[in-house]
Amino acid sequence: MTLVLEHVHKVYQDGPKEYVALNDASLQVQAGEFVAVVGPSGSGKSTLLSIAGALLSPTSGKVLLDGENIVTLSKKEVTKRRLEKIGFIFQAAHLLPYLKVKDQLNVMSVLAHKSKQQKTDILAHLGLEHRIHHYPNDLSGGERQRVAIARALVNNPQLILADEPTASLDSSRGQEVVKLLANEVKEGNKAGVMVTHDERVLGYADRIITIRDGKVELG
Amino acid sequence: MFLAIRELLFAKTKYILIGLITTLTVSLIFIVSGLAEGLSADNASSIQGLAADSLVLEAEAEGELGSSFIPMQKAKEIINDQEQEANTLSIQMMNATVGGGDKQISLALFATERDGMLIPEVTEGRSPKQENEVLADESLKQDGIQLGDELQLGEETTYVVAGFTTEQRYSHTPVVFVKSDDLEQVNAVAVKGESVSEGAYSTIPKMDALHGIPSYSQEQASLNMMIIFLYVITAFVLAVFFYVMTLQKRDQFGVLKALGANNTYLISGLIIQVILLSIVSVGIATAISFGIGALFPADMPFILNMATIVQPAIIIIVVSVLGAVVSLYQVIQIDPLEAIEGVAT
Ligand SMILES: Nc1ncnc2c1ncn2[C@@H]1O[C@H](COP(=O)(O)OP(=O)(O)OP(=O)(O)O)[C@@H](O)[C@H]1O
Ligand SMILES: [Mg+2]
């Protein structure tokens, strides 16, 4: 999978005022590449990630997933691309409180109309095998975020997007989680983009991109 | 389905509580329906079960049995005009005393041809044979009347109960079938199938005659009004509950959408929850209503059977789903972007 953003503009309409959140942002992420996105608060990092993840459409510009421009797709199609091609990891784990760990993963298979095959591999890989029958409430913050990563990986998406995945974790837990993410990207030959404020995890990234005032400064 | 069921089970207490409220309103709907049905029968089972399909009345009576008067001579002509079997029917509300006592019993005297089609089946005793013998509804037994007892009407008339029949009540009183030979006028001519009438006489289907029974329409209307209100309350309670639940789960829906769940999946989950909840409530309410019905005294006009329950049960499930429509709209409105912190929608 390659992710390509070409001349992406995003203008937020805030009443009569216009706010340019992304200004001619272009970006390429190759398969097997793990890219970190940094920048001051309000610079447009989440906006960039949301556009790359088909959660938000740009005011102008192209977003290509394996060459397909998702900007022009219908809402329904876009939702399908998210399900099949993109794995999201959010700032908070955002697990469903009423599902046990195994079902947090099974729900992804259900959504994708796939059989609920054993998820023990992934869970073991993320050190969660002894938590399979626990509810999110009974997990630590780090465990929750690891379940969220497992959930993002279930349908074997080729693009992994993470918005401040370590924000709710302490430093060592944060390192652990980012290391995991970097490994998944490498091993699965996926494209990975992670927005972060945490300088200590930048070492795991192949490339660091800085955003300032909506402009991408390649590093 | 996957999510809907697991959430129901996880948030048991909430759903049990709302289920309890729905069960109570649904039970009330069933019980009031049973009462409406019971009162309807108590008021009109003799007409509802009348072995005829239509009635010829005096046109001026405008469908009211009690205001229609047909001279006997004319009634016989009308009967002759019919293609199918027809008999006269005359209804008179009377008070009777038993065996010289003081106690007054209200009766509805149905006068018709002695061996005519309108005479219902005898369930106890035998058909009247002697001049003064009559067939009475078995509810008269609750007034202590037995086979062979004498009913004193006014100074001159005395009837002897030769047999009992069942489900023959009119205007909340037991019906007594007497013979019509010596009457000078009758209220109606009851006809099997379509009836022929002309001039000062008109035809109505027998069920239309129910409205002419004193208080029938008013009774049914007020009970039906209660039932309709209970439907609305049930729908509202469920609508508000699922609306609030949906609001509470906004971010969950947002995350699910971000992960790739489409609206159809999320909406069908919600509808499954509503339908499950209302079906379980209807089921429990059915048991409760039958239980309460069994506790009612025998002479209480209350009729509850599966046939009475099916219609309201279906209506309840339909209005519950309708009530959930507001929440469906909410679900569709939720933006998957809500899963991403900081990017406001
Ligand atoms: N719906 C919106 N309407 C108007 N302005 C918005 C909207 N969403 C975001 N913005 C603005 O766009 C800019 C970029 O927002 P974004 O969330 O992408 O920043 P960020 O780099 O992720 O910041 P942070 O590091 O604080 O998460 C911010 O100034 C924000 O206030
Ligand atoms: Mg952000």
Automatic annotation (TrEMBL), chain A:
Location of the protein in the cell: Cell membrane
Any coiled-coil regions, as ranges: none
PROSITE patterns, per database record: ABC_TRANSPORTER_1, ABC_TRANSPORTER_2
Molecular functions (GO terms): ATP binding; ATP hydrolysis activity; transmembrane transporter activity
One cellular component (GO) term of this entry: membrane protein complex
Membrane topology: Peripheral membrane protein
Keywords in alphabetical order: ATP-binding, Cell membrane, Membrane, Nucleotide-binding, Transport
Keyword Cell membrane: yes
Domain ABC transporter residue range list: 3-218
Keyword Phosphoprotein: no
Protein family (similarity comment): Belongs to the ABC transporter superfamily. HrtA family.
PANTHER family named among the record's database cross-references: HEMIN IMPORT ATP-BINDING PROTEIN HRTA-RELATED, IMPORT ATP-BINDING PROTEIN
Function (record text): Part of the ABC transporter complex hrt involved in hemin import. Responsible for energy coupling to the transport system.
Subunit note: The complex is composed of two ATP-binding proteins (HrtA), two transmembrane proteins (HrtB) and a solute-binding protein.
Name assigned to this protein: Putative hemin import ATP-binding protein HrtA
TrEMBL record, chain B:
Location in or out of the cell: Cell membrane
GO annotation, cellular component aspect: plasma membrane
Pfam families per UniProt: FtsX (PF02687)
Membrane topology, record value: Multi-pass membrane protein
Keyword Transmembrane helix assigned: yes
Residues annotated as domain ABC3 transporter permease C-terminal: 225-336
InterPro entries, sorted: ABC-4/HrtB_transporter, ABC3_permease_C
Membrane spanning residue stretches: 15-36, 223-244, 265-296, 302-329
Keywords per UniProt: Cell membrane, Membrane, Transmembrane, Transmembrane helix, Transport
Organism domain of life: Bacteria
Subunit structure: The complex is composed of two ATP-binding proteins (HrtA), two transmembrane proteins (HrtB) and a solute-binding protein.
Family per record: Belongs to the ABC-4 integral membrane protein family. HrtB subfamily.
Matches recorded under PANTHER family: ABC TRANSPORTER, MEMBRANE PROTEIN, HEMIN TRANSPORT SYSTEM PERMEASE PROTEIN HRTB-RELATED
Function: Part of the ABC transporter complex hrt involved in hemin import. Responsible for the translocation of the substrate across the membrane.
Protein name listed in UniProt: Putative hemin transport system permease protein HrtB
Source organism (scientific name): Virgibacillus chiguensis
